[in-house]
Design goal:
Blueprint (H helix, E strand, L loop, with lengths): L1 E6 L5 E2 L10 E2 L1 E3 L1 E2 L8 E2 L1 E6 L28 E2 L11 E5 L4 E2 L7 E5 L17 E6 L5 E5 L3 E5 L5 E6 L7 E6 L5 E6 L4 E6 L9 E4 L10 E4 L2 E6 L2 E5 L5 E7 L4 E9 L2 E8 L7 E6 L3 E5 L4 E5 L4 E6 L11 E3 L4 E5 L9 E5 L2 E6 L8 E6 L8 E7 L4 E8 L2 E8 L2 E11 L2 E4 L3 E2 L12 E9 L7 E8 L2 E6 L16 E9 L2 E9 L8 E9 L7
Parallel strand pairs: 2-3, 8-10, 9-11
Antiparallel strand pairs: 1-46, 4-39, 5-6, 7-38, 12-13, 13-14, 14-15, 16-17, 17-18, 18-19, 20-21, 21-22, 22-23, 24-25, 26-27, 27-28, 28-29, 30-33, 31-32, 33-34, 34-35, 36-37, 37-38, 39-45, 40-45, 41-44, 41-46, 42-43, 42-45
């Protein structure tokens, strides 16, 4: 007697269990868009590298300066890029010219010439020389990235990256923008003990970068957040503070001894500070974000908690464990804010900030489980779900931010550094369904259940796309790829709406997997999956 399991919903996200979950839940998956108006299975957006330098036009840049520079100009007529900065801190000087730049700067700073057609210096394939651990979208229209060895990079709205500064104090441990009562806006960053700032937009050569203080506590995070016009900075068992009037103290708040501040977020005009015990850093609050829910990521095993300063509730774990950096969390949409003000009050009396979807740049998980996870929902009637939007295997993911609908995530893989961005092209989507268990048999039946075939129902299949069906038996061994009647493994018949894959294997537990192969910005769209098995008195005979 033929029986079947039918899957008609795909919106439930990654389940807490391997064999059950809310409607539309699946055991694992990545590269899938599950939060659409239609409850179907399609590929999500792909990630591509930004900041790459074309190797097609080599640079003629020659610079004896102590920091490495590159000159992305294709012209054959050289022009000298002057750099004679008296600044005590490392900086870059810029010449904007259609000709190639030969830099012979006597200073200890690098020199850089910029043109619309970038070309690398010897051996360079990327702008990035270290891992950006903080990304800041600034009010001057640029996004700034702050690196693990002191480099600062800038991205324009067209996705063009360039190095703009090198801090001689090394690793940058926090960065944020802050307005001032003077009417100026600054971008701040902190190294081990030094806090610096630069007015925006200010000088293009960054010679207006200045030291604010040199007394931060060393060897601790300096994550920072602008709160009500002031800057709150993690500083060991203290918070350092830069006021709206630009006043400064390195001891603005004293935490309970033994607690080290690691994360700082703003919530309705107040600071929420995530810490770790100095004797147990592995259980730290690695990252925090307020989306629809107030969330923190704790420890190295991927634990997510709901934390609103009243309730503490374990929500979920990322499937393969792992963790995030303090800069590795953001909202998918720009947070917008409502303020409440009474005419007789000196300032606003209440504030509400909106964000819908938390994004986590997870690394250190089991192989295959690292990347950008989303948690939340886009509409009130959708379930709150966890999804691995972008699988990304790297040694470390540094920071994540969403800029005008584009998600940016930084990474380090060995000695390679970079920033990836979402595009309109689709990624390969992988869906691993919940464990399907054979029904309990009567004693008379007694044999193992045969699994016969899988039917995949979809919208008319676009040209260049395909669908694969894989399965695993009794939760062991490798995935097995099923074939169609003609012996092929891919369902790629243009405009067809049903693909039939034959299985012909026996098992008590059956694990299904679909692989959706897109082309460009076009994805196949699965509407239903039916998996047939035999069960009855003649089963197996």
């Amino acid at each position: 007697m033929a029986n079947k399991y039918v899957v008609e919903s795909f919106r439930g996200g990654i389940s807490d269990y391997s064999d059950k979950g809310i409607s539309g839940a699946f055991k694992f998956g990545y590269g899938l868009d599950i939060r659409k108006k239609d409850d179907s299975l399609t590929c999500g957006r792909d990630l591509v590298d930004e900041g790459l330098i074309s190797s097609a036009s080599p640079s003629t840049s020659e610079s004896p300066s102590s920091s490495v520079s590159y000159s992305p100009s294709p012209s054959v007529s050289p022009s000298v890029s002057p750099s004679a900065s008296p600044s005590a801190t490392a900086s870059y000087s810029f010449s904007f010219s259609p000709s190639s730049s030969i830099s012979a700067s006597p200073s200890t700073t690098g020199s850089y010439s910029d043109s619309p057609s970038p070309s690398p210096s010897a051996g360079m394939t990327s702008v990035f020389r270290d891992l950006p651990r903080f990304l800041v979208k600034a009010s001057d229209g640029y996004t700034y990235a702050f690196g693990s060895t002191g480099y600062i990079y800038r991205r324009d709205l067209d996705g063009f990256w360039m190095q703009v500064y090198k801090d001689s104090n090394g690793e940058i441990k926090g960065a944020e923008e802050k307005p001032s009562s003077s009417g100026k806006t600054y971008i701040y960053w902190a190294t081990n003990t030094v806090l610096k700032r630069k007015v925006l937009p200010g000088l293009s050569d960054w010679n207006d970068a200045e030291i604010v203080a040199s007394n931060l506590n060393s060897s601790v995070p300096h994550t920072m957040k602008q709160v009500g016009g002031a800057l709150h900075i993690a500083n060991g068992s203290w918070l350092a503070y830069v006021g709206y009037d630009d006043s400064y103290t390195n001891e603005g708040l004293d935490l309970i001894p033994g607690n080290i501040a690691k994360t700082v977020i703003e919530r309705d005009g107040s600071s929420i500070i995530g810490t770790y015990r100095s004797i147990d850093e592995d259980r730290s609050v690695n990252g925090a974000i307020d989306s629809e829910l107030p969330l923190v990521q704790v420890g190295d095993e991927g634990e997510l908690f709901y934390a609103d300063m009243v309730n503490s509730l374990a929500i979920k774990q990322f499937p393969g464990g792992g963790k995030v950096n303090p800069g590795g969390v953001c909202n998918e949409i720009e947070q917008v804010t409502l303020f409440e003000w009474e005419e007789t009050s000196l300032s606003w009396i209440d504030k509400q900030t909106f964000g819908n979807m938390a994004l986590f740049a997870v690394y250190g998980a089991d192989t295959g489980y690292n990347g950008v996870y989303s948690y939340g929902r886009k509409n009130k009637n959708h379930p709150i779900t966890l999804n691995l939007d972008h699988q990304l295997e790297a040694d470390e993911l540094g920071a994540i931010i969403n800029v005008n609908g584009t998600t940016l995530v930084s990474y380090r893989d060995g000695t390679t550094f970079g920033v990836k961005a979402t595009t309109t092209d689709k990624a390969t989507g992988v869906y691993e369904g919940l464990d399907l268990k054979s029904p309990v048999k009567n004693k008379e039946v007694g044999s193992i259940t045969p699994w016969k075939k899988a039917e995949v129902f979809c919208k008319p299949l676009p040209s260049g796309t395909s669908i694969e069906f894989w399965y695993k038996l009794n939760k062991s061994g490798d995935w097995i790829q099923a074939r169609m009647e003609d012996g092929t493994t891919d369902f790629d018949n243009i405009s067809e709406t049903k693909g039939i894959f034959f299985i012909q294997d026996k098992a008590e537990i059956f694990e299904p997997k679909l692989v959706l192969n897109p082309t460009g910005s076009t994805s196949p769209e699965v509407l239903k999956l039916s998996i047939y098995f035999e069960w009855g008195l003649n089963n197996g005979r």
